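Q: Protein A?
A:
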Amino acid sequence: MTDQTKDLLTTLSSILLRCWILGLVLLFVGFGTTQLMGEFMFKLHGPITGLSKHELELIFYCGMGLLKLGIFIFFLIPWISIKLVLRKIQ
């Protein structure tokens, strides 16, 4: 493997790690917003959508679950894979 490829993989792994961290921050902000401002969010979105508070919470939590799944699939797993490849070639 050439030095150029190693540099590319190192850069890509650092980008993926930062994306994973920022995704987790976004996830925690969404969770905190749901916990701290749940009633406000219901008053804001409830009349517009016609959904109950339980249905809106279900939608928010499912969205956070999909976000977490996407963060792990698209950022964490590729980062781990690249790190394992870099460790193997060194």
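Q: Protein B?
A:
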Amino acid sequence: MSGPLQAQTSPPAAASPSESELDQKRHDMEALQSAATVSVEQKRKIEAEIEEIRTDRVRLNAALIDTTAKVHAAEQRADEIGERLTTMSGSEDAIRRSLESRRGVIAEVLASLQRLGRKPPPAILVRPEDILRTIRTSIMLGAVVPELRAEAEALASDLSDLANLKTSMAAERATLATQMADLNAETTRLQGLVDARQKALAEAQTTLDAEQRHAAEIAQQTTSLKDLISRMEGSDALARKAAEAAHESEVAQQKAAEVDADSIKAKVEAGPFRDPARLAPAVPFADTKGLLSLPLSGRIVKVFGQDDGYGGTEKGVSLQARQRSIVSAPADGWVAFSGPYRTYGQVLILNVGGGYYTVLAGMDHVDVAIGQFVLAGEPVGAMGDGSVKTAAAIALGATEPILYVEFRKDGAAVDPSPWWAKAALQKVRG
């Protein structure tokens, strides 16, 4: 009596988790808590490090450039792993489709092997009455078995490839998870450094806010980038000051070149972007051809001079970016404009000296202010998630954010390709 009664009143054994399942859940919870603790400790360490170098402009600049380079490298590696995973997924789908299409053959092979295993050929000497049937079966098997063997070997090969592919994909996903963790850590560090840099401008924040509002009013009144640059440097105090600084730097460079042209050549050969303490470009912008890095890790989708689809040609380069990619300054320069402009999205215009300007458009936000001097490789903004469409993104039908880059000389767009380093072009073109 007690047995049936207990069976009715007690819950089924399967409904209660086993000790091993509970242990696994405890282990998973501890791992999550440990990861969260490491993340907090890492953030505190980053904050302490940034606070230590906040007042040291040279160290801060060096840290900004170095961290931005690490973020770009991590984004590039993550993109490469993502592309490999996409290729592997395509291969997995192809193998699965192949196996699915041969489902009938698989069933036939398995059935034949099963029959052979369960009903081996009869012993001729023991049962002589089956001699004729045995001969007929042997003739049939002689014709069928080679074909079955070939099919079985093909199936085994496909299954082996599928298993190896799954193992490789699991390894790639683990690597991607590690890369994303590194990327998140470097991005956190970079944001802290950017905040520290901008705090140095806090004393002039009232002036900056006024100038930013003035810049927005000018942007609404202009109809072209050429007009925008001209109006900004004509009526905006900080933009005018930046233009004057660029002119003074250009004059100083020309005088230095007249006195010692070899020293300028030596600086170019040694690397004009190595000194993080510089307050002006080390060499003229025209001498940096073949030395500039692209502003972000992305793929070139349109080049200068290409048909723009509207009867004209492209005046710049369009880069397809990762969501929320960090954008860096391609060259040393003074910020001539920073803010939204027409259908370009958030725009940054740098006066890089010698009558040259670089335009970066399509960003989600810009982290530098008008009049500020920025170094090549220094972070200046970030892309969005692609939900807000700029004119460049709409023209391409892109779902990912698009960064538009344009170089201008004396009011006209120029081909930027001679300035890009070969290594940078190889990366974005695969």
